[in-house]
C-alpha cells in the first residue's frame, strides 16, 4: 500500500503546482496608463471654502468627558476648564481641540502666561488629592509644551479638594470638581 501512495502523492503535488503556476500574458489589458491632458485652457483658482468644524462624532460622550465633549461647546461653555475622569490624570481626548487653541494663542503671544490650577473632588485623602491635582496640571502643561508653548509661559498650582466648583456630594458635583483651570495671568486673550 505504501508504494502505491508515494506515486499518487507525487502526482497530486505536481497537479497542484501546475495549477498554481501561471505566466503573465504579454498584452495585459488590465494595466492602463493615464491619457495625456489635452485641455490647455487656464485654470481658474477656486476660493477656499469656509472652515468646517471637525466631525466629533467619533468621540463618545461619557460621564467622564461630558463637560469636555466638543458637542457641548455652544459658545457659552467655559473653554478654560479641562475636566478629568475619576482618579485620572490623563488629558481626555475630548479636550484636545480646546488645548490646541490655547497652545496656538500662547505660541503667537509670547507675552501671554497661564497658571494651570489643578483640582480634585472630595474623595480621597488631602495628600492624595493634592498630588492627583498636581499630576492633572502637569499633564495639561505637558500637552501645551508638546504643542510648542514655552515653559516660561506656564505656572502649575495644585489645590486638591480645597476649592470645589460644586459643593454637593453627587457624581455630577464631583465631576465638576475634577478639573484643571487655565487662568491667564498676562496677555489675556
Automatic annotation (TrEMBL):
Task: Report which superkingdom the organism of origin falls in.
Answer: Bacteria
- Stretches of Polar residues bias are at 24-43
Q: Which GO terms of type biological process are on file?
A: cell division
Query: Is Signal among the key words of this record?
Result: yes
Membrane topology (UniProt): Lipid-anchor
The segments labelled Disordered in the record are 24-61
The record's comment on protein family reads: Belongs to the Pal lipoprotein family.
What this protein is called in its record is Peptidoglycan-associated lipoprotein
What is the protein's species of origin? Answer: Alcanivorax profundi
Q: Which gene encodes it?
A: pal
Amino acid at each position: 500500500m505504501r508504494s502505491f501512495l508515494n506515486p499518487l502523492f507525487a502526482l497530486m503535488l505536481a497537479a497542484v503546482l501546475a495549477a498554481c503556476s501561471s505566466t503573465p500574458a504579454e498584452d495585459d489589458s488590465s494595466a492602463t496608463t493615464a491619457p495625456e491632458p489635452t485641455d490647455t485652457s487656464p485654470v481658474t483658482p477656486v476660493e477656499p471654502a469656509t472652515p468646517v468644524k471637525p466631525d466629533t462624532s467619533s468621540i463618545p460622550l461619557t460621564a467622564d468627558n461630558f463637560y469636555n465633549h466638543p458637542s457641548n461647546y455652544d459658545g457659552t461653555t467655559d473653554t478654560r476648564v479641562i475636566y478629568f475622569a475619576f482618579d485620572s490624570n490623563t488629558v481626555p481626548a475630548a479636550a484636545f481641540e480646546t488645548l490646541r487653541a490655547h497652545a496656538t494663542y500662547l505660541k503667537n503671544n509670547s507675552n501671554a502666561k497661564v497658571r494651570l490650577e489643578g483640582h480634585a473632588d472630595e474623595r480621597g485623602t488631602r495628600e492624595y488629592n493634592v498630588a492627583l491635582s498636581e499630576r492633572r496640571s502637569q499633564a495639561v502643561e505637558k500637552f501645551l509644551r508638546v504643542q510648542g508653548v514655552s515653559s516660561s509661559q506656564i505656572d502649575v498650582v495644585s489645590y486638591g479638594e480645597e476649592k470645589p466648583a460644586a459643593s454637593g456630594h453627587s457624581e455630577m458635583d464631583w465631576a465638576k470638581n475634577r478639573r484643571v483651570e487655565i487662568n491667564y495671568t498676562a496677555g489675556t486673550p
